[in-house]
Fold this protein.
Amino acid sequence: MRSACDILADQWRISADRLDKRLDGITDPEFFWAPVVDMWTVHPWADGGATIDYHVPAPDPAPVTTIAWRLVHIANGNWIYWEHALGPGERNFTDLILPTSAERARHYWHDSRAPITDWIEAADDADLDELRPSHLGHRRNAREVMTTLIDEQTHHGAEIGLMRDLYLRRD
């Protein structure tokens, strides 16, 4: 019987591979494409920095987001969940340096996945039940952390795929 860690590692890898294929050939105009008003996005600065639209609590209804926002959101979530639940717990969202192009964002996302991949591949099922710190203030077990990250990657990856389909069919 396969371990829960093996199953989660497969889901993590498969959802990433699917998203990576969806990102092949993406251009900056497509990455920042905003087909409706008031979309949340990443805002590059002239000096090379950037900001990302985000409010707590989120507005209701939630805003539509660009591919840039979605991919950076996935990567930021990876970095912060890893940082607090599986890593040293030193950085927060304001410490992250946001990418300002489609190519940089893809690398940023790839880099954000590496420590999580290393952790899940080295973990055993008992590690999944261990309570971990959280940037959200309450402790969560590693299984919840991994399923949240897989869900975010799958959910936003599908949205990115749809945005790419729509971009190719725009008037």
